[in-house]
Design a protein that fits this description.
By secondary structure, this protein is of the alpha/beta class. It has twelve helices and eleven strands. The two termini are about 30 Å apart. It is about 35% helix and about 15% strand. The strands form three sheets. A five-stranded mixed sheet has the order 3-2-1-4-8. Strands 5-11-10 form a three-stranded mixed sheet. The chain is globular, with a radius of gyration of 19 Å. Helix 5 runs parallel beside helix 10, helix 9 packs across helix 10 and helix 11 runs parallel beside helix 12.
């Protein structure tokens, strides 16, 4: 079995030193004006518990941070690699508050395994997993499904990715791997959505699951060889910009090349935290209704502390035992 690492991006938006540095570049704030992008839900310890309990086969966890660390973290754990931005981002692009810059440069992390799983600190395992849920025969497991771009704050970035993909790949690439694009494991609904878009002469968009994403370093290196100048320009944006590219560009290229193993996403869930939804989300967690759960923050939270307390309590019910990553 190949070695598989987890790469976790985490930020503590309450850190005064981080806040002060970010204020120095406030005029260059770009798309990241909302403070909710940086608030900490106090669930990083539960994320690490979920990896240790439900993915005990992992080789190492690389925790990417601006520099701050929670006081409870066992920083000398042999399977934990603390990665500060200054450890892997070229100096001319620092400081950066742009998640796209952090993610597009992950392949530069020292001692990162060839096969790794990328996630932010809002994504959790809630059931046991196997390496084959993420990689099979060295290929990342994914669902290839055609889609359309929805109007959203990240819509322009997705369109930027698609412009590069459609310039590089003909739609004939889909025909060469039609069995992977129409794999029965995706389910009827997803297959029908792809089939409905087959008449298009180009790739209109790809379905993005917003879950733990398996990657290979070689695919990032390929992207930098293909679009190096474009990616360098992105890395000069200290905050997210409508002119950015994202790590989805790497994934889209893998899908178009058919270099992946089909995987159902029916055991994954993306939910939005609100005052009204927290009760149902807590049940999803404690009843282990999904295997992978991504929690999307939102502006529809009037009482953040109450929702946070409810959420932490749910994770404590599911994962009450401290992991070996905790002091």
């Amino acid at each position: 079995m190949q070695a598989i690492d987890f790469v976790v991006l985490w930020v503590d938006g309450t850190d005064p030193a981080w806040q002060a540095e970010r204020r120095n570049y406030r005029l260059d704030q770009g798309m990241d004006a909302s403070e909710i992008r940086y608030r900490d839900w106090g669930t990083l310890r539960h994320l690490l518990r979920s990896i240790e309990r439900f993915a005990p086969w992992h080789r190492r966890i690389h925790l990417v941070t601006w520099g701050h660390l929670p006081e409870w973290l066992k920083t000398d754990h042999p399977k934990l690699h603390i990665v500060r931005h200054t450890d892997y981002i070229p100096r001319e692009w620092l400081p950066t508050f742009n998640s796209n810059v952090l993610e597009l440069n992950l392949w530069r992390i020292e001692a990162l395994a060839e096969h790794f799983i990328l996630l932010n600190d809002d994504t959790f395992l809630t059931r046991p997993t196997q390496p084959e849920d993420f990689f099979r025969k060295g290929q990342p497991c994914d669902m290839a499904r055609l889609s359309v771009v929805r109007p959203s704050s990240v819509g322009p970035i997705i369109l930027n990715n698609l412009e590069r993909i459609n310039t590089l790949h003909s739609r004939k690439a889909l025909n060469r791997h039609i069995g992977k694009w129409l794999a029965p494991c995706y389910g009827v609904g997803n297959l029908l959505k792809t089939i409905s878009l087959l008449p298009w002469s180009f790739f209109p968009a790809f379905y993005d699951s917003h879950q733990m994403q398996p990657y290979r370093k070689a695919d990032f290196k390929r992207a930098w060889e293909l679009w190096g100048e474009d990616l360098k320009r992105v890395c000069t944006h200290r905050f997210r910009s409508t002119e950015d590219l994202s790590h989805w560009l790497v994934r889209y290229d893998v899908l178009c090349r058919g270099d992946f193993a089909p995987r159902s996403m029916q055991d994954c869930s993306l939910v939005t935290l609100t005052d009204k939804s927290i009760g149902d989300i807590a049940l999803q967690i404690t009843q282990q209704q999904q295997r992978l759960l991504c929690l999307n923050d939102s502006e529809q939270i009037a009482d953040f502390e109450a929702v946070k307390t409810h959420l932490v309590a749910a994770f404590e019910t599911l994962l009450p035992t401290p992991s070996s990553y905790e002091k």
